[in-house]
Amino acid sequence: MHPDKPDSWTPAPASVPGVDAEGRPRAGTPADAPEQPRQVRRIVRLFRPYRGRLAVVGLLVGASSLVSVATPFLLREILDVAIPEGRTGLLSLLALGMILSALLSSVFGVLQTLISTTVGQRVMHDLRTAVYGRLQRMSLAFFTRTRTGEVQSRIANDIGGMQATVTSTATSLVSNFTSVVATVVAMIALDWRLTVVSLLLLPAFVWISRRVGNERRKITTQRQKQMAAMAATVTESLSVSGILLGRTMGRADSLTRSFAEESEQLVDLEVRSNMAGRWRMAVITVVMAAMPAFIYWTAGVALQLGGPDVSLGTIVAFVSLQQGLFRPAVSLMATGVQIQTSLALFQRIFEYLDLPVDITERADPVHLDQVKGEVRFESTTFAYDDQGGPVIDGIDVTVPAGGSLAVVGPTGAGKSTLGYLVPRLYDVTGGRVTLDGVDVRDLDFDTLARAVGVVAQETYLFHATVADNLRFAKPDATDEELYEAARAAQIHDHIAALPDGYDTVVGERGHRFSGGEKQRLAIARTILRDPPVLILDEATSALDTRTERAVQEAIDALSADRTTITIAHRLSTIRSADQIVVLDSGRVAERGTHEELLERDGRYAALVRRDARLEPTR
After folding, report:
1. Angle between the 240-248 and 202-237 helix axes, to the nearest 10 degrees?
2. Pairing, β 375-382 against β 392-399
């Protein structure tokens, strides 16, 4: 890999807020206390598109709470009136009312669960789509410094970890809060003195739950980082390339031990996360469970001491309400803990949503229906944020429509970077690059994608069929169009000879095909796309001479009548180029045709002689 390739670039840590050079959140970035209100408001905004459905949930919650608190009052009437007075008809109506109350409460509960779960899943979908869409808009530089497993972990583990919070916490919060308020009001209606006794310890319980929530939030941040590290390790070491490297280097056992160590750290964090505050919450549970006994004792002592007369029905109804208060109150505190924990997950997702997108489409972009293909580099300069000098420094080159330009030079000269400026994989930091006289930064993305095709040295194929990989360039392509593109790329006969033909699954990253076959598949895919401008980034440098000839024939077919910019390592492939530019440290050292540059006997001639010496060994 060449230094001017994006893969070797390590950006300045300050270039992405909250993310280090490997794409992981930096230490100290979890939601701090002053940031929590702003973050909570941002979370609430996620639910705004569904406020109508949430309003229905609120009505159902309120109705369910009112119905549930009615039961103790019915019970009091049964104990104080219906049974003592022998009123069988009233007893039957009250008992029927208790059954109807339970039935209505269950129906309301099912409906609110259905609606709230649907809303929660839609919010999850919105978050996943937003993160994926943001990442699709990031420049190539972001992905060269970020581990693939880290990105996958954000989308899968972090958003997946928020599922319970998003789908049920909001409803649980409203439901339990409504139940607590309704129950406390009912308790006051029964006996305000017993209510005061019951609620004396509530402030202490709230304080404990907040402490537990903060503790779990901090542990969750560490846990998610560790899960992301494990995901990155699995993605890298269990890919086809990773397995090949591990086996051939004899590192399989070492990789297993390394993974075991990371997994052991995750075990510790999972245990700490689940046990955080368990003893304190257990104390709360015991105290609240003991409250009925305390109420019975308080009422009994008050009666013996000549205090206010409280009927048996009132005491039983009050204890019933208190027991009904116990479940939502504990659940409310647990929900508070869960929200605190989830803030760490939301923070990690918001970090990705807040990543600055440095390659954007203008508000009023230029759309070209027909692209001729003239490419100009006008005083073009490009520098990475973390490097002192420019990688590309003031280059002026014109490639006429249908013409060909070859870019050569030593490793690290800036060849690939120059080519990547045309499709805006990077944006210039000085000067400009134009397509048919229009700055590529002013073109809409659709025009640029249709106009410029890239065939790179490292061909990427999806784990899908040959036909699916080809149709990625043109989803509506017919079978005959696939065959024509494959024939032009010198790969049709090979595909047709496979047992499943174009329905053959290529395997992960195309490992069922050789390097030359993958390159020809990539060329066929580009032919199907039919771009007027073509960037060939050392497309044959890793191939043997025989395979190179076959691929070169496919490239010649692809390059016909197109504007072609070839980043070349093997100079034998670019001798017929209309113009050859020799780069050195980002500057144009020489330019001319193959014959002109040989006559000058300069840098290009030296590269040709070196290439000739190496040719027999290939």
Report:
1. 70
2. antiparallel
